[in-house]
Amino acid sequence: MGALSRSWGPGGRVSRRLFIAGAFAGAAALPVVATGPASASAGARRRVLRAHPASVSLGRRTVRTWAYDGLVPGPQIQARAGETVAVRLVNDLPAPTTVHWHGIRLAFPMDGAPGFSQPATRPGHTFDYVFTVPDPGTYFYHSHVGTQPDRGLYGPLIVADPHEPLRYDEEFTVVLDDWLDGVKGTPDDALRRLNSSPGHDDTLRSTALGGVSAEMRHPYYLVNGRTPDAPVTFRSGASRLVRFRVINAAADSAFRVAIGGHRMTVTHADGFPCRPVTVDTFIIGMGERYDVVVRLDSGAFPLVAVAEGKRGRAFAVVRTSPGARTPAKGAKVPQLNGRMLKYQDLEARRVDNLPRPSRTITVTLGMRPSGNEWTMNGKVAGDHLRLRVDEGETVRLALHNTSPMWHPMHLHGHTFQLRLANGHGPRKDTVNIKPRERLHLDLLADNPGEWMFHCHNLYHQEQGMMGAIGYGPARHRKDHHDKDHRR
């Protein structure tokens, strides 16, 4: 496929025959921040992302939270692969903050990891993020300071492929979240409650996740910032082939996703293409992203994301017929109990396969007897595990989960290849590992820096499950005050 075909339809809606980069339709529309192709030195167009306290409507309820530009999710940022993203963070919060660009293989100083790549940006200050986006795909951005990601500090980042081989009519971005801020105290209050007790809620259970599924129930579960009482509507047409980009931005909830009356063909995992596989449902862990294509029937259908092991669900409507009856928020969706996606179903393209590793590094995930400290090789954040690699080598990370809960493990600045028993597997940056499970992740060390490797359950991360992949000998860590990027 050559250049993208683009025309403006009624009401200013972008229409593309084969590809719509980050468009939202109907009530689901979110603001878009586009970035230009110029390099930073050539004066890439700078966009401003303002973090500040805000009153945000979740539908029928308005809450006080922290958000980017007063929106939940924050504005969608879009670019094409190979282009430069230039975003100025303005911190109008009462606390330091950063922006992490989740899943992007970017230059280390731009990673937004406090204490690793940059100091957190202080209140009243700014930080300029300028980086190239090398790979097309579905990504997102969020704060990486304390429990801030369990507020409203997150948003989608969509990187289009200028030579997109996947043929479809239009696309929608679906951002899932669990919500408690301003309803059930704050995320800091929730963390204090967890830290004060060694117990875990055994009623939160999922066979698919191997046991206890989460640390808490959130009052609300959201699709694009809306509760089931006032759902987002994705408007399309019957027989259209639609790409859904699904992002799990939640703090403590995996979601089981399905569209009533439809099957879904999974085409991408964490931004990277995979051999297409058609399923009824999939579980998406915190930090994961899946792209699926669906041929839509005529009518109005529930898009449901059940919080796995909990009693809540996120809910949206997919509408192709204006006169069709709107499905109820509690509508039954048989597809939720149909064929579920497994990692064994996913296979990277041959061109995306990584070289075979030259050595293996074992990482054991555990829990201390306190019940509220999660470890990597016995270490916790503050005295964290550092795994040394050397530039150019491929290593195998052998993950062994000896803890009683599952963990969505995320690596910054890289992708890895999940190596399954048949030798194949998908390229990803976040992987779910169940209790007593062992997984092999092959990593090509091609992006020097000190990169966070941690559980993307926010509360497990804050309770210690944070390590690092470091290039070469360990260096004394210190804050970086780069005058070129701080104002």
Summary tags:
35 strands, six-stranded mixed β-sheet, about 40% strand
Give a written overview of the molecule.
The strands form 8 sheets. This protein has a 6-stranded mixed sheet with strand order 15-12-17-22-19-20, with no helix packed on it. A 6-stranded mixed sheet has the order 26-25-28-33-30-31, with no helix packed on it. The protein has a 5-stranded mixed sheet with strand order 3-6-11-10-8, with no helix packed on it. It is an all-beta fold. The protein is globular, with a radius of gyration of 21 Å. It has helices spanning 187-195, 458-462, and strands spanning 7-8, 14-15, 32-34, 47-57, 62-68, 76-80, 84-91, 100-102, 126-132, 137-142, 154-160, 170-179, 205-206, 211-212, 220-223, 233-235, 241-248, 255-259, 264-269, 272-279, 282-284, 289-295, 300-307, 313-319, 359-367, 374-376, 386-389, 394-401, 407-411, 416-419, 427-428, 430-433, 438-444, 450-455, 466-471. Mean pLDDT is 89; it is low at 1-30, 35-43 and 478-487. The protein has 2 helices and 35 strands. Helices cover 3% and strands 39% of the residues.
Q: Secondary-structure blueprint of this entry?
A:
Blueprint: E1 7-8, E2 14-15, E3 32-34, E4 47-57, E5 62-68, E6 76-80, E7 84-91, E8 100-102, E9 126-132, E10 137-142, E11 154-160, E12 170-179, H1 187-195, E13 205-206, E14 211-212, E15 220-223, E16 233-235, E17 241-248, E18 255-259, E19 264-269, E20 272-279, E21 282-284, E22 289-295, E23 300-307, E24 313-319, E25 359-367, E26 374-376, E27 386-389, E28 394-401, E29 407-411, E30 416-419, E31 427-428, E32 430-433, E33 438-444, E34 450-455, H2 458-462, E35 466-471
